[in-house]
Amino acid sequence: MAAALALGAADAAAQQQQQQKNAQPQQRQEQQQKNQGPPNALQGFSQNRDEPVKIRAASLEVREKDKMATFTGDVHVVQGDTEMRCKTLVVFYEEETTPPPSQQASAARPVKAAEPGPGGDRQIRLIEAKGNVVVVQKDQNAAGDAATFNMRKNTVTLVGNVVVTRGADVLRGQRLVVDLTNGVSIMDQGRVEGLFQRAPAEKK
């Protein structure tokens, strides 16, 4: 009997340890979610980073000397299930680089985008969207006066009358910075206003 009780206690202790182990990743995930700030449509560019970027506009001007391309007139950008509209989109890119033949097959292109210049393979370093910028992903919207996509830092900054919506929830502020690497979002530079709707109670 004593042996049986000892075995039972050992099993209970083992189960408790296993439950604690299983709970740790969940706790870490919950903590990360708490630190991430408001979920928003801008994070869609990170979730769809392996998808090609399609850009449509009324006109395109390429300045090879300045390493920049400007899309104007009802600009529409699509990447996976994320869309962005704005009046003007300016793409700044690095000097053309050709990897050694041994690396060409395995070289990963940082951004799969419509080629901004005539020179072929270009690495985009910065994108500036201006004028009534609206980003949509599923039931999430993010709007502002201008947005900057920094490819080196992997961040997106939305400024000017920023409005972030998710379903019926609304968040307003002057600047939203999203780190696409870790998903952390920060809204600052002035007062932040939020309206969060309670989820409807489940019917019994």
How does this structure look, described?
With 204 residues, the chain is α+β, with helices and mostly antiparallel strands. The protein folds into 2 domains: 1-35; 41-96 and 103-195, Lipopolysaccharide (LPS) transport protein A like domain (lipopolysaccharide transport protein A fold). The protein has 3 helices and 10 strands. The protein has helices spanning 2-35, 44-47, 101-104, and strands spanning 53-56, 59-63, 68-79, 82-93, 124-137, 140-150, 155-166, 169-179, 185-188, 193-195. Strands 1, 2, 3, 4, 5, 6, 7, 8, 9 and 10 form a 10-stranded antiparallel β-sheet that branches. It starts with a helix and ends in a 9-residue tail after the last strand. The relative contact order is 0.15. Residues 1-13, 28-35 and 102-120 have low confidence and may be disordered.
Chart the SSEs and their pairings.
Blueprint: H1 2-35, H2 44-47, E1 53-56, E2 59-63, E3 68-79, E4 82-93, H3 101-104, E5 124-137, E6 140-150, E7 155-166, E8 169-179, E9 185-188, E10 193-195
Antiparallel strand pairs: 1-3, 2-3, 3-4, 4-5, 5-6, 6-7, 7-8, 8-9, 8-10
Structural class: alpha+beta
CATH 4th-level superfamily of the largest domain: Lipopolysaccharide (LPS) transport protein A like domain
CATH topology of the largest domain: lipopolysaccharide transport protein A fold
Query: What is the C-level CATH assignment of the largest domain?
Result: Mainly Beta
Total strand count, please? 10
**Total DSSP helices:** 3
Helical content band: 10-25%
Distance between the termini: 46 Å
CATH architectural type of the largest domain: Sandwich
Radius of gyration: 23 Å
Overall morphology: elongated
